[in-house]
Amino acid sequence: xxxxxxxxxxxxxxxxxxxxxxxxxxxxxxxxxxxxxxxxxxxxxxxxxxxxxxxxxxxxxxxxxxxxxx
Length: 70
Known about the structure:
By secondary structure, the protein is an all-beta fold. 0% of the residues lie in helices and 63% in strands. The chain is built from no helices and five strands. The strands form two sheets. Strands 1-4-3 form a three-stranded antiparallel sheet, with no helix packed on it.
């Protein structure tokens, strides 16, 4: 299985970084495949099963937002 998730900044802020965590932590057989700036205001992450796992797993996406002077 592959999962993708996007975290977005509130209005008036831009994304300056981000990250991802697989839950539960250290789930065997699952790997992060991408973590990137999806747009000026969002961070997109993805992960997939490398081998079949019987564990229910998910993703947490984090975006770090800031007000940038114009």
